[in-house]
Structure prediction request, 462 residues.
Amino acid sequence: MHAPHAAPLTKLPGPPNLPLLGSLPWMLGREGVLMRLLELAGVHREAGLFRVATPTGHAPIFVVSTALAEQLFDEKRFQKAIEGPLLNIREFTGDGLFTARGDEPAWGVAHRVLSPGFTADAMERFLPAMRQVLEALLMHWRRAQSPVDVVADMTKLTLDTISLCGFAFEFRSFETPALHPFLQALGRALQESLDRLHRPALVSALFPGKARQLRDDVATMASLVDGVIAARRAQPRAEWPQDLLSLMLTEADPKTGAMLSDENIRYQVLTFLVAGHETTAGLLAFTLHQLASNPPLLARLRAEVDEVLGTREPTRKELLSLSLVMRTLSEALRLWPTVPVLCVAPLADEVVGGFHVPAGQPLNVLMSAVHRDPAVWPDPDRFDPDRFLPEPSRARPSAAYKPFGNGKRSCTGRIFALLEATMAVALIVREFDFTANGPLVIAPTTSPKPKGLRLTLTPRRR
Ligand code: MNH
Prediction:
């Protein structure tokens, strides 16, 4: 079924495709692939989509307009596709929630078993553990003699938080300068998942060391997780904490009666550690950089925190009522979405932006570009939390803003992440004054982060 007016995908605009190199010369740059893709989005804004060619022979297609994104977020016609970095991450997260294919039954089973782990009640139970890890960060910062490495510290915060809340496992990252071997393995494995996309097959064949390192790292991660699961099983049931691991070990799928397999539980634990830390860490780092460079916003934010929390221990209700903190986080996720690409494929042949797209063809919605579409966002590069006041928010199409993904495959941990991030920002601004070491530069990591950001901390002047 080929619509007569639709052009073939080979006619898509994009940078040149050289033999062996593909569009590599157009993709490289100090700030990595993402920043080059954003530049290309500007060039191809009119068409709404473009394609690049990687040296591995793939030719990923990027969609950058809100209008086309709206079509692609129709779940009756498109579903999440496991391609690109997700396909590589799947080597260690398998059919876990994040990397399961649309038609894999394990997704539905795990989705139904794990959803009760993210209710308001569950968040109430997680709050003390979140607060405990945040206190370790604040203590570390109170003692800091030199500027702090924000990305490293936010990564420690979010990893320790998800592992403590999810699996009652304590990395105690702030007690040791060196990163836990598990976290080193995870960091390397995630980076390799991204680097592989741009490495020609010939180079991979000549240097098998990277593949061996990944196998070792996957084995390191699997053995720690299997140890945590075995330790839980060895504990008397009555002593099991009410966390995500207990949920997976005890609950059957309400629909099919199926239990998660041991292998699948390992995949889910790794999934939560992967999906649940880099993204929140990046969000916090971008937000702190913005606050360091935006004194009027910092002053407004503190006024809200002082009024709602005073100097007391925050409750969940109070945290949820910090609406300017929440809008600031939303705006940070608009400008720097820490999951910058959502990949979907059509269930049947489609025409997208005038091009014929066969069923199953992956399309990458570049949310970093959609979030800056000038057709929807006035003065799109300006940081303005008040875009997220109720009135302007209602006026926007829903496809214009999707930092937590779309529909049934959207983020399981959204409320968890926002609660964790809100408490961190609130207690940090309540206690510290801080200045950044320079303008924002984006690091070319799996999930974008402010590169080399350091903050000089002083106790807040009142
Ligand atoms: Mn999270 C899926 C963004 C924090 C657990 N997450 C997604 C997707 C986006 C996303 C986007 C959809 C990806 C896709 O379509 O391919 N997640 C975020 C952001 C933050 C975040 C921006 C923090 C800020 N996520 C978290 C935290 C957890 C978590 C914290 C766990 C506690 N996320 C998940 C899981 C999925 C997911 C699990 C997969 C959901 C599914 O497909 O069923």
